[in-house]
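Hi R.,

Here's the chain you asked about this morning:
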Amino acid sequence: MFIICHYGCGQEAAHQLKNGKWCCKKSVNQCPKQREKINNTLREKIWNNPDYKQKQSNSLKKYFQLESIEEKIQRSEKIKETIKKNNSIEIMREKAIKRNKNLEYKKNLSDKATERMKDQSRRKKLSNIFRFTIDTIKQKYPFFLDVEEIRYNPENIDKKEIQVRCKNSNCKNSKEKNGWFTPTHYQISTRIFVLKHSRGNSFFFCSNECKKECGIFRKRYDPDSLSNFRKYHKKVSIETYKSIKEYKNKIQGLNLRGKLNGYDLDHKYSISEGFKNNIDPKIIGHWKNLEILKAGINRYTKKEKSSITIEDLLMEIENI
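And here is the predicted structure, written out as tokens:
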């Protein structure tokens, strides 16, 4: 006798459950229709819920901040061992190479993308998502406005076309010549990324000629801010040296630092962030802001990012 799955997938039932109903799988949750319902429920009530995402983010941050140096090192080593043991990187690389060589797969991806982009409503939606306005920049990237001047093109106010200044001081579109030009979306997003993560420069130039003519093209920092950064870095180094000399017994794992053991002395709230946010060098160099990290993690993962907020750091200092 042919029995259809009671849970709506339309397949032939193969298992009778304890409640007397028939299902295509051994468990209700394995039925394709039920899996789809569960996924939709999770997506609506949990995954797309900003409060849930924020709660998860805060709990993870709190968990990692409470980790001791030994626990951080153990977690890092455990991840490395698991990757080596399972040969995960090589397996993923081989799969990717094999997949990318498959012309049918690539054509299928291309056809799907082309078909999606035929939908005008979708294109308009994507355009609005990736569009920059002065209000969105103020709200999401306030640090950008501390460095760059922006305005709407007076000739295209309705279109909200953003304009910036060219970094080449001899250009008619520069601040020195009281000029403006319209950058591409890529230029704005790259500049925001660079300022946010303190990597490279990507200053605004209106043309390739201006890049070649300007002396700071391809330089990491603007020379004017670099001199100030060096002064700030030196002050932090002095305060850090004082902290190490006076509180070396309170900095866990301090004796591990150096090339021999492969550990670095790191500032939890980074010097770069301290400089950008005008934090007192004494706070950045305080022993509560110092930790010992595996050299690889410090130099290639953490880099100039902060592993603690300034509010939490000040609270730790106050609670001594």
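One quick note: The mean pLDDT is 85.

Cheers,
M.
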